Amino acid sequence: MEINKCAHKAKCDFYGCKNLAEYSFTTKGIIKRDLCFCGECLNGMYQAIAKMQTPKGTTSKFKLNKKLRREND
Ligand SMILES: [Zn+2]
Asked: How much is the pLDDT for 47?
């Protein structure tokens, strides 16, 4: 899967969005056709994904504890 600059003039595929598509999301056959979307919608998607992926605090805390323990030895 990759995101490319949208080569052809198309409307953003997001429902209710009337902007011209700036990017296209290529899945190589996973979905019927490339998904086209504008910069605004890309940003919205990015923020939604970032929200989903934030809870990584547990692993970094674990690493920190390990480091602290090593320093005490
Ligand atoms: Zn859009």
From this structure: 92
CA 12 to ligand 1 centroid distance, Å: 5
pTM greater than 0.70? no
CA of 39 to the centre of ligand 1 (A): 7
- String of DSSP letters for 3-70: EEE--S--B--STT--SBP-EEEE-TTSSSS-EEE-HHHHHHHHHHHHHHH---HHHHHHHHHHHHHH
State in Å: Cα 20 to ligand 1 middle: 7
pLDDT tens figures, 27-54: 776 666 788 999 999 999 889 989 887 6
19-32 pLDDT tens trace: 999 999 887 766 66
Beta-carbon neighbours within 5 Å of ion ligand 1: 12, 14, 17, 19, 38, 41
